[in-house]
Design goal:
- It is a single chain.
- Helices cover 42% and strands 13% of the residues.
- Helix 3 (66-77) crosses helix 4 and helix 8 packs across helix 9.
- The strands form two sheets. A three-stranded parallel β-sheet has the order 1-4-3, covered by helices on one side. Strands 2-5 form a two-stranded parallel ribbon.
- It has a single domain (2-26, 65-216), classed as Nitrile hydratase alpha /Thiocyanate hydrolase gamma (Nitrile Hydratase, Chain A, Alpha-Beta Complex), CATH 3.90.330.10.
- It is α/β, with parallel strands linked by helices.
- The chain is globular.
């Protein structure tokens, strides 16, 4: 069983093949064209320089998904924090000093024994960059965006993640003013681990929902 939490209302066509590291090669999405136009205009007007943009991208690349992993580790070790995080993702991140989330609303969705969550942005590539770093190429690709809402189990299997038939797969569709992050299940046998060690088990793909913490892999 699968469920789609629709953030964008439009048709989803079936893509026959899924290329994890290759873009579809089609025209740029409207919002991406607008981003390029605004960026070039700001540079032309002297509001910002290409060097400032480059440094910001480098900082984002260097940070990666470490912030998101730390949030997950805290939730695994502090039930009260976990409850606050699930109730209000942005407020939970604020508690950890992460206050530069660009989205108006952050929703943290928890994986359980019965439910597995996965994130997509079917319209463009909205993504919680301050928590996960820059999105991978496959996340922005048209095949992933189309197929994840139509056949999530098949796509997850291509990532090497096969879930039991009785686990419900919920697909969450990001929007311009809402971002999602997955709170994966804590690996077994880690009860005495520190937050730092727990965070090391959480990959970027775990936070998107296309993988499990590495300690759970057989």
């Amino acid at each position: 069983m699968s469920e789609h939490n629709r953030g964008h209302q439009h048709d989803h066509e079936h893509a026959r093949t899924f290329q994890r590291d290759h873009d579809d090669g089609g025209p740029l999405p409207y919002l991406q064209v607008m981003e390029i136009a605004v960026r070039e205009l700001l540079i032309e007007k002297g509001v910002i320089t290409p060097e400032q943009i480059r440094r910001q991208i480098e900082r984002m690349d260097a940070r990666g998904h470490s912030r998101g992993a730390r949030v997950v580790a805290r939730a695994w070790t502090d039930p009260a924090f976990k409850a606050r995080l699930l109730a209000n993702g942005r407020a939970g991140c604020d508690e950890m000093g992460i206050s530069d989330l660009e989205a108006l609303h952050l929703v943290v969705v928890e994986n359980t024994a019965d439910v597995h969550n996965v994130i997509v942005c079917t319209l463009c590539s909205c993504y919680p960059k301050p928590l996960l770093g820059l999105p991978p190429a496959w996340y922005k690709s048209l095949p992933y965006r189309k197929r994840m809402v139509r056949e999530p189990r098949a796509v997850l299997k291509e990532f090497g993640l096969e879930l039991p038939d009785d686990v419900v797969v919920r697909v969450h569709d990001s929007t311009a003013d809402m971002r999602y992050m997955v709170l994966p299940r804590r690996p077994e046998g880690t009860e005495d681990w520190s937050e730092e060690k727990l965070a090391a088990t959480v990959s970027r793909d775990c936070l998107i929902g296309v993988a499990l913490p590495h300690a759970l892999k057989q």
